Amino acid sequence: MSKEYAAENILVNTVCIGLIKSAQNERDWRREAGEAAQPTLEEWCAREGAGIPLGRVGETTEAGDVIAFLASERASYVTGTAINVDGCDSPVV
Question: What pTM, to 2 d.p., does this model score?
Fold first, then answer.
C-alpha cells in the first residue's frame, strides 16, 4: 500500500504493539486473579513483563509517542514501515 499511495503523498505505516498496560490487560488480570485480586495488578504486570527482554510491560504513553511521531510532520518521509513497540519481544534489525 505504501508504494501504491506514495505518489499521492499518503504515508502507510503500522505500529505492532506488544504487551502494553491497558484495559485489556486489566480484564485478563481480573479474570485470573478472581475475587481475591491476588496477585495485585502491579504484581501481575511484573510477572508478565519478566519474559520481555526489557523486563517490563510497556506504558500506553510509550506506544502513543510512537504513533504521535508517525502522525506528525516530522515523519513525512517515513512510509512502508512496521515498528514494533514491544520491549524487544519480537526483535528485528
Answer: 0.84
